[in-house]
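Need a sequence for this fold. Nothing fancy.
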């Protein structure tokens, strides 16, 4: 993971060899060729590659952003974080709206995608793309694949929005009782859905998958603020299993310092 400068700094697209002497240009090209050849040899030998990141993640450390850093760490993909500080309104900057017209985070640009750079927004779409790109954390058979997909959609439409609203209304200096009660009760219902789903296996779609990665960060955020899972032991154990994964811990830590900058 590489943390880049703020996204709204001017990005120059000048010729990188501009101003160089012919001998310097020749040397630069030679270095590129050596690096390319070395990468090819490394790949043929089946050795791990330390490639320059081609994935740009526009990010702030919220549950939606953390879904993506966790997935990237789980997939062992190199990536560059470009901070978008939503507390300062940077998601409304004109340059960022070109990437994400919905002015939210996260967004992902894959500069090495087939056919040219691919720009994605909405965390569920990004997760699914990364699962397809790597062939990881998504079952290959039809039934398993759509079992995972339906839980990703469930998270996007239910757990995420409901937890977000519940925490928002609880955090007001003057809480709105009717709203707090409504979203707290809905979270209880959703935890009940998870508790039943985890009755026959350890993860939402059977095996650990993109469905669990999508859901984990919001359940974790809600449990930290509103301890509830003692009433849902299967969900509690599910949360602990995922939190213990080294890649999940790295994903939660990745870019966490941006909040205090």
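Here you go.
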């Amino acid at each position: 993971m590489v943390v880049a400068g703020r996204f709204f700094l001017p990005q120059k697209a000048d010729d990188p060899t501009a101003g160089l002497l012919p001998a310097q240009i020749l040397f630069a090209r030679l270095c590129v060729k050596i690096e390319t050849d070395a990468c090819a040899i490394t790949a043929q030998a089946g050795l791990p590659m330390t490639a320059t990141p081609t994935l740009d993640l526009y990010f702030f450390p919220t549950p939606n952003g953390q879904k993506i850093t966790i997935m990237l760490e789980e997939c062992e993909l190199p990536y560059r974080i470009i901070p978008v500080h939503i507390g300062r309104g940077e998601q409304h900057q004109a340059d960022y709206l070109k990437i994400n017209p919905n002015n939210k985070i996260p967004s992902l640009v894959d500069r090495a995608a087939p056919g040219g750079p691919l720009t994605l927004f909405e965390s569920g779409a990004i997760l699914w793309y990364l699962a397809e790109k790597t062939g990881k954390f998504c079952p290959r058979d039809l039934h398993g694949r759509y079992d995972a997909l339906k839980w990703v959609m469930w998270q996007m439409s239910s757990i995420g929005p409901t937890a977000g609203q519940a925490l928002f209304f609880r955090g007001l200096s003057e809480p709105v009782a009717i709203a707090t009660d409504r979203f707290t009760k809905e979270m209880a219902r959703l935890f009940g859905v998870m508790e039943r789903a985890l009755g026959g296996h350890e993860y939402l779609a059977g095996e650990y998958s993109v469905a669990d990665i999508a859901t984990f960060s919001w359940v974790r955020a809600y449990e930290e603020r509103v301890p509830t899972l003692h009433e849902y032991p299967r969900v509690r154990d599910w949360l602990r299993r995922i939190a213990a994964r080294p890649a999940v811990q790295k994903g939660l830590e990745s870019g966490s310092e941006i909040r205090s900058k």
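For context: The first helix runs from residue 22 to 44.
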